[in-house]
Specification:
Elements (H helix, E strand, L loop, with lengths): L2 E9 L2 E10 L14 E3 L2 H10 L10 E6 L2 E5 L10 E6 L12 E2 H10 L9 H9 L8 E2 L6 E6 L5 E6 L3 E3 L14 E9 L6 E8 L4 H17 L6 E3 L3
Parallel strand pairs: 3-6, 4-14
Antiparallel strand pairs: 1-2, 4-5, 5-6, 7-13, 8-9, 9-10, 11-12, 12-13
Helix pairs in contact: 2-3
């Protein structure tokens, strides 16, 4: 709707209208169309896309952003009305979902520790599995619990019981970043066992992250270094923005 806006001049008691003109409320111009982001699930597929360049991108102007240890995106330069396209989103689907920070039955916990954490490392995975394998619900009991370390009575032979101390923090290497980038980052966790209400039964265990998220910094740069090495010839910029 047009409106008349008047500009006036005061001359003592007399007001004179100098001129007027219509004011238009013009609509905002539409944004330029953007491409639909392509979803990938490995660093290798992102590298192959950029090397083959099927969409004819100017690879010297696009850039790869390492968002997190499990998320990498490819972005266009600014265009149109200060727009930026997210061309590719590569994600690593970590098997750790719903495992850390929650108590699980000893059977489920041992399975999770054996399948969701990288083996063959200089960490505490094998030691923890060994202790938990000898815990029996009917003859195990927690004692000397100071909030960090716990002592548990476990079976050491056919009928012999031994007292095992679980000293925290423990060092583990869970699968939580792209495996192509290298070994999984080892970090510290607090291992907690939970005793049931009836005496002599230990039925649940949980892991809690205890490094303050420092592993993410190391893992981000590990992913970035891998991509920079693989994309040197393609001249694609790789940045760690988070």
């Amino acid at each position: 709707m047009n409106k008349q806006k008047q500009f006036t001049e005061m001359d003592g008691p007399v007001t004179r209208v100098l001129y007027s003109h219509p004011v238009f409320n013009a609509p905002e111009p539409p944004n330029d169309p953007v491409a639909t982001s392509l979803s990938l699930y490995s660093l290798g597929s992102l590298v192959e896309y950029l090397k083959q360049n099927p969409d004819g991108l100017d690879r010297t102007k696009v850039f790869v952003r390492v968002v997190s240890p499990s998320s990498v995106t490819l972005h266009s330069p600014l265009f149109g009305r200060k727009q930026r396209e997210s061309l590719i989103a590569a994600a690593y689907l970590s098997p750790l979902e719903n495992f850390l920070g929650s108590f699980h039955s000893l059977t489920d916990f041992r399975i999770g520790l054996g399948t969701r954490f990288q083996g063959g490392r200089e960490d505490d995975r094998e030691q923890i599995l060994d202790v938990l394998a000898r815990v029996r619900a009917e003859n195990s009991e927690l004692s000397d619990d100071n909030g960090l370390s716990q002592t548990i009575t476990a079976q050491s032979g056919a009928i012999t019981l031994s007292r095992e101390q679980i000293q925290n923090p423990v060092r583990l290497s869970p699968y939580r970043s792209f495996p192509e980038a290298g070994e999984q980052v080892t970090s510290e966790f607090v291992l907690r066992l939970q005793q049931e209400k009836q005496p002599g039964t230990v039925a649940r265990a949980a892991l809690f992250l205890a490094d303050g998220g420092a592993w993410e910094y190391t893992a981000r740069w590990q992913v970035a270094d891998f991509l920079r090495t693989k994309l040197t010839e393609a001249e694609v910029n790789v940045a760690v923005y988070h």
